[in-house]
Amino acid sequence: MPLLPKLLVASLIFLTLPDAFSQDKSAKKVTYTNPVFEPILADPTVVRADDGMFYAYGTMDNWGDGKGAHLIPIVSSKDLVNWTYVKDAFQTKPSWKEKGGIWAPEVVRVGGKYHMYYAFSTWGDPDPGIGLAVADAPEGPFTDIGKLFLSSEVGVPNSIDPFFMEIDDKKYVFWGSFSDAAAQGTYGVELSADGKSVPDLSKKFKVAAGDFEAVIIQKKGDYYYFFGSKESCCEGAKSKYQVRVGRSKSAKGPFLDKDGKDLKERGTGTMLLHMNDKYAGPGHNSRFITDDNGDDWLLYHAIDKTKPYVSTGANRRVLMLDKLSWSNGWPEIVNAEPSTTSVQAPIFK
After folding, report:
1. d(CA 194, CA 170)
2. What pLDDT, in 10s, does the model give residues 80-112?
3. How do 143-150 and 163-167 pair as beta strands?
4. What are the helix (H) ranges across the chain?
5. Mean pLDDT throughout 9-37?
6. What angle is formed at CA 48 by the lines to CA 45 and CA 317, rounded to 5 degrees?
7. Which residue of 23, 42, 114, 345 is surrounded by the most CB atoms within 10 Å?
8. CB under 8 Å to 5, separation ≥6 — which residues?
9. How far apart are CA 24 and CA 248, in angstroms?
10. pLDDT at residue 135, as a whole number
11. Inter-residue contact 119 to 96 (CB < 8 Å)
12. ∠ CA 241-310-47 to the nearest 5 degrees?
């Protein structure tokens, strides 16, 4: 064969190779296996910074790493799968309450700043409360602003687990946890325009019963979805924590489950996530996050039954990630339980 035709044939073959390689590359999926961070990142909240990095924050816990109690640990990731510890949000614990831990941080962007609404409580605390700290950047440092309210001041027992939301250009905080008292439940109340105080505590409104905690409310399509956790969070391998949902056309409710029952009644909520043979107590999820492929993902904590505690005795609540799919207007997770094998990872370009 003459030299020129040989070169043309070689060129044609070479030109077809990139397409074949790209097809193979596109067919290969990036995968991950739970957990996505350990030893502990309980009650996670997540925020995305302007540069695309995700920052997650967890409840104050002693990881058994010789550093004492982490005062709201901060971890960062580009893809929701590979997380790196950054630092703690606080250098010293807020002092507006005499005793307690800093629990269930809720970090959001408000007016160009990063607001961290947090719970200040001990186990069995008769008067826990909600506080606020503010930072210029997601990695802090966070400066404590102080108390928003105590349970006794707002008239809601066990006032923990804050959640921030804007509704019709107004700012709200939702909160609440387990209680059998007459005033039990998950409530919301309007914040000031800067999100730093509550002008009128008496204007609170109830959205769910007192067998829920860890409220998250998020819109998808025509509905607002209420995610709440029930049962025991912190009994090691015996933990029965689980996530249940309801939905409403209004961010203030009423939220109904699939059976049409109002979440303000105890014993309601459609199951989204429960324990399996490997993981106990999956719950207290973050807001769901939509990747560049349009898929939604949920971060939450759970406890590996084979190693439920760290050396300090703290529950080893690791950070978990699972895909949230939607069927007939309701969120679902495969088998309603934590994934335990290698699964497809979120896509972020």
Report:
1. 10
2. 999 999 999 999 999 999 999 999 999 999 999
3. unpaired
4. 3-27, 151-154
5. 56
6. 25
7. 42
8. none
9. 44
10. 98
11. no
12. 60
CB 113 within 8 A of CB 70: no
pLDDT at residue 25 is higher than 80 = no
Report the SS3 class of residue 231: coil
Task: Look up tokens 């409360």; give the residue.
Answer: 129
Among 81, 80, 77, residue whose Cα is nearest residue 32: 81
The answer to whether residue 21 scores a pLDDT higher than 80 is no
- Are 310 and 41 within 8 A, CB to CB? no
Which residues are registered as beta bridge partners of 229? Answer: 213, 243
Cα–Cα dist 77/85, whole Å: 9
CATH 2.115.10.20 fits 30-344, yes or no: yes
291 residue type, one letter: D
First-to-last C-alpha distance (Å) of the chain: 46
Domain ranges of the chain: 30-344
Whole-model pTM: value is 0.91
- 36 half-sphere exposure, CB direction, 13 A CA radius: 29
Contact assessment for residue 117 and residue 189, using Cβ atoms and an 8 Å cutoff:
no
Query: 18 by DSSP, 3-state: which?
Result: helix
CA–CA distance, 97 with 77 (Å, rounded to integer): 33
Model pLDDT for residues 28-39, shown as the tens digit of each residue: 579 999 999 999
β partners of residue 208? 186
Say whether the peptide bond before residue 254 is cis (omega within 30 degrees of 0).
Answer: yes
For residue range 50-81, list pLDDT tens digits in order.
999 999 999 999 999 999 999 999 999 999 99
DSSP annotation of 196 reads S
Whether the per-residue pLDDT at 1 is higher than 60: the answer is no
Question: For the chain, what is the mean pLDDT?
Answer: 93
Residue 296, SS3 per DSSP: strand
